[in-house]
Amino acid sequence: MSPTVTTCPHLRQDVAASLVVFLVALPLCVGVAVASGVPAELGLVTGIVGGIVTGLLPGSSLQVSGPAAGLTVLVFDAVGEFGLPALGAIVLVAGLLQLLMGALRLGRWFRAISLSVVEGMLAGIGLVIIAGQLYAAAGMKAPASGADKIAGLPAAFAGAVGSTTAPASIAVGAGTLAVVLSWRRLPQKVRAVPGALAAVVLATLVTLAFDLPVATVEVHGLLDSIQPLGTDAFGELASPAVIGTVLAFTLIASAESLFSAAAVDRMHSGPRTRYDKELMAQGAGNAVCGALGALPMTAVIVRSSANVAAGARTKASRVMHGVWLLLFAALLPSALALIPLPALAAILVHAGWKLIPFRQVASLWHGNRGEALILVATAVAIVALNMFEGVLIGLALSVVKTAWEASHIKMEVMDQGSGPIQAHVSGNATFLRLPKILDSLESLPQDRPIELDLSGLHHLDHACRTALESWAERHSTAGTEPVKVTIP
């Protein structure tokens, strides 16, 4: 047996899987960068760092990291408000925070975030991506806010109808989307090539063959696109708005990566994810991306699932996919200039559509309408306001719902007509349900002795205890026996 086979028993499977992931990642890296308002090469840089740097670190063995559609909206807003140089500083600090949280063993706590909030976040992002990329597919500039993007679609459609160049751009985008949607119906041998890549290649060939008046990717060159951080970039970090953006990057990138890790673990029987280590790996990758002035990274479920499905066995597959991205960026950068922008817009429309959890909303509506409302409210808030505020609103609603459910209380009154009235209270007595408790107690007859049994309570907070003692004192007037209270 050769030494290579002995030391790397799964090399053949990992090489094959790495090529599949590379082909899946290539159009997405470029598309996410263009949609984020940064040079296309920076998307490749983040993909390279996600493969080689994060891929080498411990955490999750088969999860693949890179630029994600889920951060597109946040990055676009950050670049538009603070400028491209400041993006590197924001990503670097977010990466350092992830490293700190991983060192403090906070990674596992991200699994405690309500799934409805995460899915609502992804749904809101998906809606904003779709709306924004519809403008790009028509060769138009999209409005800044999510609400304006959606509200302006009818006017954009009317403008496209009367344009001389928009029809060709829309046709390229629509054709690309049609190829992506129909690709899974083709024979398995054909589907060995990822649908997104095949669609972009076909759109490029059609655009070149017919010389269509369609905008293509602007190429700057890999080395020219990388802008290592200077001291000037850190001056923006004193702004409260920038601090909020850093926290949003940290929270969203971490949550998306760790939720992806949990999903990937369900796809294979290999080693389980070590969440704190994975959070540190993501932080290290983002710190490097920030230092290079590139896009932030997260673990990406599309690439990760492709990696597992392609038969990857070790982390070597994700590292090699980063190597292939590096070779492409170094040897074939001019190929990017041939890619039509409407084709990338169609790829991102498809990615945005997949972010919207239609099945989960329907399932939650039938099983837990409170969670379904939190999901919808989070998505609407992200579209109407912005990413950070939308997520905070979702988290606040989740906390309120949990607190409300945790304060569930039940009161049973037994009155046999003579003797004391027995009131049995069970559940959790918190200040949230204090008005209900007092209303029920104050409705009892004032001239009858009462036995208040609180032994069924799981929790009695200070506010409720004080209020119940005050009620008992008021009820125990002259001529009435003192209220007998049994406390837990």
Automatic annotation (TrEMBL):
<keyword id="KW-0812">Transmembrane</keyword>
<feature type="transmembrane region" description="Helical">
    <location>
        <begin position="15"/>
        <end position="35"/>
    </location>
</feature>
<feature type="domain" description="SLC26A/SulP transporter">
    <location>
        <begin position="11"/>
        <end position="378"/>
    </location>
</feature>
<dbReference type="GO" id="GO:0016020">
    <property type="term" value="C:membrane"/>
</dbReference>
<dbReference type="Pfam" id="PF00916">
    <property type="entry name" value="Sulfate_transp"/>
</dbReference>
<feature type="transmembrane region" description="Helical">
    <location>
        <begin position="82"/>
        <end position="100"/>
    </location>
</feature>
<feature type="transmembrane region" description="Helical">
    <location>
        <begin position="237"/>
        <end position="264"/>
    </location>
</feature>
<dbReference type="GO" id="GO:0055085">
    <property type="term" value="P:transmembrane transport"/>
</dbReference>
<dbReference type="InterPro" id="IPR011547">
    <property type="entry name" value="SLC26A/SulP_dom"/>
</dbReference>
<feature type="transmembrane region" description="Helical">
    <location>
        <begin position="112"/>
        <end position="136"/>
    </location>
</feature>
<feature type="transmembrane region" description="Helical">
    <location>
        <begin position="323"/>
        <end position="353"/>
    </location>
</feature>
<keyword id="KW-1133">Transmembrane helix</keyword>
<feature type="transmembrane region" description="Helical">
    <location>
        <begin position="42"/>
        <end position="62"/>
    </location>
</feature>
<feature type="transmembrane region" description="Helical">
    <location>
        <begin position="195"/>
        <end position="217"/>
    </location>
</feature>
<feature type="transmembrane region" description="Helical">
    <location>
        <begin position="156"/>
        <end position="183"/>
    </location>
</feature>
<feature type="transmembrane region" description="Helical">
    <location>
        <begin position="373"/>
        <end position="400"/>
    </location>
</feature>
<keyword id="KW-0472">Membrane</keyword>
<protein>
    <submittedName>
        <fullName>SulP family inorganic anion transporter</fullName>
    </submittedName>
</protein>
<dbReference type="InterPro" id="IPR001902">
    <property type="entry name" value="SLC26A/SulP_fam"/>
</dbReference>
